[in-house]
Amino acid sequence: MKSWNVGIVLFDQVEILDFTGPYEVFGLAVHDRYQPTERSLFNVTTISESGNLVIAENNLKVTPDYSLATAPAYDLLVIPGGPGVRKALLNEALVNWVRARSGDTPWITSVCTGSLLLAQTGLLDGKKATTHIDSIDWMRTQYPAIDVIDDVKYVDEDRIVTSAGVANGMHMSLHMVDRLAGREVAQDVSHIMQFETDFDEYAC
């Protein structure tokens, strides 16, 4: 079974569970768990604009693995949300980087209000998407070219997948493990995390 490189974008005031949830899901996905042949299926690293220390919500300090300039190629990107998204939307370097990387990154995902950053790039125009419940109306108003869906855990538009708020990022990440590595691996991660999900409960 092949493996995939996952990049999680970080910025100041990023919501903690928005990035740690997906990090844990992808990090726990392995082939042949508890066997001598066990190996990780997803190599997860983090990125920020400068690569310097990021201060997440509640003053959690995180040192990213890469800057935008040094980040390697990825198979899948995760754009988390949080209060810091408001500032990130105005960060042309970050918005342009996500837009540019979408051209050679097979899968682009977002958690919570991270979908607003994707919306800012134009990548969601003409597509269905979701976001945090408290940002649904704002997203509809600010980005009328997007078909904003509420009351779902996540929306799968093939290579772009957006999730609703916070913990729903774990449902979305399990869905991506299911898509890429298969149902057996995804169910194993769900079991290890003791986090139940319905693999067929989403909008597309």
UniProtKB/TrEMBL annotation:
What SUPFAM superfamilies does the annotation carry?
Class I glutamine amidotransferase-like
> What is the top-level taxon of the source organism?
Bacteria
Give one Pfam hit by family name.
DJ-1_PfpI
**Which CDD domains does its entry note?**
GATase1_PfpI_2 (cd03139)
GO process terms (BP): regulation of DNA-templated transcription
* Residue stretches making up the DJ-1/PfpI domain: 6-177
Q: PANTHER family of this UniProt entry? A: ARAC-FAMILY TRANSCRIPTIONAL REGULATOR, DJ-1_PFPI DOMAIN-CONTAINING PROTEIN
Query: What is the name of the protein in this document?
Result: AraC family transcriptional regulator
Q: Which organism is it from?
A: Paenibacillus elgii
Q: What is the lineage of its organism?
A: Bacteria, Bacillati, Bacillota, Bacilli, Bacillales
